[in-house]
Each structure stands twice: as C-alpha cells, then as structure tokens.
Amino acid sequence: MELSRNDGRAGDQLLVHRTDQAARIGSILEVLLAFIVVHVAYRSFKHFTGLGHRESAAHVNFSPGAVMILATVPLVILAGRSFADYGLTARNWQRNLNIGLVAALLVATGVGLLAALNIRPNHACASAATDALKISGGLSRDTGPKCNSPIE
Questions:
Q1: What is the pTM of this model?
Q2: What ranges in the chain are assigned the alpha helix state H?
Q3: What is the rounded (10 degree) CA torsion for 6, 85, 104, 113?
Q4: Under a CB-based contact definition with an 8 Å cutoff, are residues 145 and 123 in contact?
Q5: How wide is the angle at C-alpha 63 spanned by C-alphas 59 and 69, nearest 5°?
Q6: What phi and psi values does residue 12 have, to the nearest 5 degrees?
Q7: DSSP secondary structure code for residue 89 in this structure
Q8: Which of 71, 78, 76 is nearest to 39 (CA)?
Q9: Which DSSP state fits 83?
Q10: Closest Cα to residue 3, out of 13, 11, 100, 58?
Q11: Is 34 exposed, middle or buried (0-12, 13-18, 19+ CB in 10 A)?
Q12: Helix H or strand E segment including 3
C-alpha cells in the first residue's frame, strides 16, 4: 500500500492515494471471481460426476476443500506470488504444530464433555451453532427433548 504522511500541526494522518483504491477494487474483484469459479467448479463436480454423487450419498463434503486447493495453488504459481505471503511456509513449523495440536485437544475435550453430559446436536440445550442450524433449516425444529434449564 502506498502511503504518504501529512506532517501538519494538527497531527499526523496517513492518507491513501487514489491509485490504491483501484488496487483495492481489483483485489476485491479478483477474490470474487476466484470464489465464483471455485464455487461453480465444486458444485459441478458434485452434480455431474460419479464421485461427486458418491460423496453426496455418503454425506461427506470433501470436494469444496479439494477444489479450493486445486484452484489456489496454480493461481498463486501463475501469478508469480509467494506462498509465504499467504502464510504458507514451513518456518516456525514446530510452534504452529503445537498450536494446532492444542486447538485439536481443546475441541476433542469439548466434544468429550458434551458426550459425557449427554448433550447431542439436536438437544434443546445445545449451543448457539445448533440454534443457527435449526433456524436455517439444517436441523428439524422439533427434534430432541425440551430443555428444563433455569436459563430459559
């Protein structure tokens, strides 16, 4: 980003040049185009291929991630950009692995706690994410027992 500094008496203010606005709009359009291409590609894969049909029948959803990776890597290479600019680097891999393992342990502990308390995704006392799924139609509104919580 190209910045200039205004050193007036009222204080320093960073001003963004107008050419930077064009670069921002270009970046937004680039991301939007990539999103559209990837979305159409994985929807087409799921709809028109036998493997996509089997994936849908098994109720798994690996194709969006695979398509995102298969689209992103060539675009980064073709544009001549660095993977490090996007945070894809082996530098500090030990620290990053530790962070990932701790996060996975926290998630596993949470899932174990929910299982130990016999709270299921369709339980009325479940999390706000489950409520959002119910609102969006992802889960049936009438599934699960009523919550006898004093919070309600």
A1: 0.48
A2: 18-48, 50-57, 63-78, 93-116, 128-136
A3: 30
A4: yes
A5: 150
A6: -85, 130
A7: -
A8: 71
A9: G
A10: 13
A11: middle
A12: strand 3-8
C-alpha pair distances (Å), 42 with each of 46, 52, 59, 123: 6, 9, 15, 32
Give the tokens for residue 25: 């709009």
b (16+ CB within 10 A) / e for 1-11 = eeeeeeeeeee
Residue type, 100: G
Q: 20-48 pLDDT, tens per residue? A: 888 889 889 988 988 898 899 889 998 99
Flag whether pLDDT at 7 surpasses 60. no
**What is the reported pLDDT for 129?**
53
- Looking at the DSSP bridge assignments, the partners of residue 15 are 4
Instruction: Tell me how many degrees the CA angle 92-94-99 measures, rounded to the nearest 5.
Output: 95
Q: Is 134 helix (H, G, I), strand (E, B) or coil?
A: helix
Hey, what amino acid is at 69? I
| Distance, CA of 123 to CA of 130 (rounded, Å) | 9
| Contact partners, residue 72, CB within 8 Å, separation at least 6 | 34
Distance CA 6, CA 12 (A): 6
The residue to which tokens 């027992």 are assigned: 145
